[in-house]
Amino acid sequence: MKKIVLLSIYLLSTMSCSDFLVQEPVEAISIKDQLSNKQGILESLNGAYYQLRSNYFKEAVFTYGDLLSGNLKFLPRTSGAVTVATSVDGIYHFDDLKTSSDLESFYSDSYQIINNVNLILQYADQLPDATASEISEIKAEALSLRAFVHFQLYKYYAQNYTYTSDASHLGIAYNTAPLKVGIDYPVRKTSAETFALLENDVAQAIAYFQPNHAIPAGVKKNFMNATAAKTLAAEIALWKNDWQKAYDYSTDAINGSGLSLTSAGEVAGNWAFSESIFEIANTSTNEFPAYAVYSYKSDAQRSNYVATDDLYNLYAASDNRRSLFETQNIKTNLTTGSSNLPYRFTKKYKGTTTSLIYRLSLLYFIRAEAALHLGNSAQALSDVNTIRNRAGLGSLSAITLDVLLEEKRKEFPFENQYFFDLMRNHKNIVRNNGCISTNCSPTYPNNKFVIPIPQATINVNTGMQQNDGY
């Protein structure tokens, strides 16, 4: 019998809201025993969410889209010196190392999650104590998670879909079955093949979703749900330049979500609470990861990352989103001595929104960009103005792609978006204020706009191809 690699199936309590996603993983048991009944499957599914929470919000992962694009700069140390945070040193200089990548654990942990959900999918149809509806929901969430994690891997490890005219360049290894020791050595698909698998997984997931989420705890937004899967499908279509699918999925998700955009008066305090589509619940003892990465508690407990002046100066004085910045004066070493200078932290993660992944505003921007490419500038303008008006700003009279991307940049700082928008639109990087990199403004196309496959993976799997430039 082939031995299946159990990378990590966690025993986590899932049966009450107070215990939901609280316990640390304690042990691994027999796959067959763990996945032979509904409770075991749900514990394992809960473990996948727990892993996703810690993996998606790793410091080097979650800061990536803002740090590489000029939205972030480094805060001075307590000594007043401004230096690069060691956890992002390679990616910040666009010179990550294959032998000691800043995102090496992100790569391996992502494939652990994928392997776990593949095991769930393998056993779900055999559950003796689950209804057909319950099995369908389990499969919907597992397929959505598989597509979501693969898509995140693609963003970091593969050039954008239109890097080649036929998407024949390298994508990622896309695993649709549990790996087996000494037998399965996955290789990278082309980008076209990768996206075909992404689209297939998310389409199946959407068809499987039921009214109730699988785990009997938490709330809908704490789990993959139909609106989250449609948001993922819309984002995948946007990356593929499949404008009609991006438009249709985003419209369907907006209309069917049951959510409303955060009102102008609540932006400062509850900027995303009412429009949250998918956010993973916190543990009872840990602050949510984004808060630890980005917020200011005190001078002794503060983030390494603050907004650049390039970003902050985009906001008009009347823009409600300016209230989401917190200014603190911090000692800074200058050539003439030291001085207390203003630095701007985000307050986004100090409120009621926890480990946020998807929110309704993103769908408006996906639809706007798709509409613009479809020649429907009226819809694009309407969607962008909806976000601007909510921010307390007047309406634009015309819209271009560059204007749209700037408006999106203002809406999503500290949410790991902007670099990926620039890359898939074949834009150059411009990092001015506060840049201390050896490579502040790399141009597109660029081998270093993706990071290296960890060398440890290639050592084990000689069929795995490394990214160009590494």
Mean pLDDT: 92
Q: What is the percentage of strand-forming residues?
A: 5-15%
- For the secondary structure, the number of strands is 6
Separation of the first and last Cα atoms:
38 Å
Class based on secondary structure composition and strand pairing: mainly alpha
Overall spatial form: globular
Q: Strands of the biggest beta sheet: in what spatial order?
A: 1-3
Q: Portion of residues in helices?
A: 40-55%
What is the number of helical segments per DSSP (H or I, 4+ residues)?
17
Report the sheet with the most strands, covering strand number, pairing sense and barrel closure. 2 strands, antiparallel
Q: For the CA atoms, what is the radius of gyration?
A: 22 Å
- Ranges where pLDDT stays below 50 over 5 or more residues in a row are 1-28
List the secondary-structure elements in sequence, H or E: HHHHEHHHHHHEHEHEEEHHHHH
Description:
The chain has 470 residues and is mainly α. It is built from 17 helices and six strands. A two-stranded antiparallel sheet has the order 1-3. A two-stranded antiparallel ribbon has the order 2-6. The chain starts with 30 loop residues before the first helix and ends in a 10-residue tail after the last helix. The N terminus is likely disordered.
Question: How would you summarize the topology of this molecule?
Answer:
Elements: H1 31-34, H2 38-56, H3 59-62, H4 64-67, E1 72-74, H5 89-92, H6 104-124, H7 132-157, H8 191-208, H9 226-240, H10 243-256, E2 276-280, H11 289-294, E3 305-307, H12 309-312, E4 325-334, E5 337-346, E6 355-359, H13 360-373, H14 377-390, H15 401-411, H16 418-424, H17 455-460
Antiparallel strand pairs: 1-3, 2-6, 4-5
Helix pairs in contact: 2-6, 2-7, 6-7, 7-8, 7-9, 8-9, 9-10, 9-13, 10-13, 13-14, 13-15
